[in-house]
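Memo to structure team: turn this sequence into structure tokens by end of day. - J.P.
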Amino acid sequence: MFNQDRCIDYFKRLLDVDSTTGQYDEIQKVLCGMLDEMGVPYRTIRKGGVIAEIAGQSDEDGAICVTAHLDDIGLMVRHVNADGTLNVCAVGGLYPFYCVTENVRVYTRGGQVFTGAVCRTPNSIHVTEEELREVLPDFRKNVCVVLDENVKCAADTEALGITTGDMIALEHRYRMENGYLKSRFVDDKACAAVLLELMRTMKEAGRAPKRKMYAYFAMYEEIGHGTTVLPEDVTDMIAVDIAPTGPDQTSDERKVSIFAKDSRFPYHWGLTNELRQCAIDAGVDYVMDIFTPHYGTDCDPSVVAGYDIRHAAIGPGTANSHGYERTHIDGLRNTYELLEAYLYS
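Reply from structure team:
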């Protein structure tokens, strides 16, 4: 049974930890604490990532790996500008038009944290020439991070300990209105919360899935190499990730999507059909969808790495992907119910 309040609590706990791709230490500690609370055994990956294990009723068909990722898109300091502001570059698929005016936290390699905001340059519309208002935001040319510090030149900023290569995380701004969850990083912390909720329910019910299940929480999905290491007994893999909505999409924020294809290649015909039939049999509100030209899941690097697995992906319909995202609690519920029905079938 889907526990809505607990799932949302997991989501909020994950959101409150900044985890721009590569900065995984803290989110991994929080996740391991959650798994310890559940009494679920796990191991960590050397580069960052956690693989939890739940015993199945039978191992005859091999293990199934269900994956969701915990890394977020963000920014990195490219260099300190002459006026003390920060020139930045994207980490993952973050675009300037989707983050200008956002509040941020700057993490230095020396362990300090500073606040600031992403701004246009020049930043005041009242004193900006008309032609400059029409120029698109560009990280290299006219977008910077302004620090909440009394800095007037590069030397002032560098004296704080801020320099090239420091990480910048965006505020998530979570809200829930009328069942709609609005936040940055619905991709993919909402899906990770669904997976955690399912694992918690399994433990409480004392009910094992049909076969051994690995829950793989990856830390590098946003840059394409999240799940390049799998346990040897994995034969099937399901990625739980957002299903972007759009004019040419069938995905709906209140439904779960079963992915037929992404920008790289189709998902496994047989496993995808099994999920579709399972959704029909269980009465889950689902759609089939295709995601091109700029989308992939953590199934892709596993297949490219050469693992002999069947792969599929499902997830809640989500608007405004890689921006201020939105989904609905029904989308999370339908994702949960499909995953639960399949793992027990």
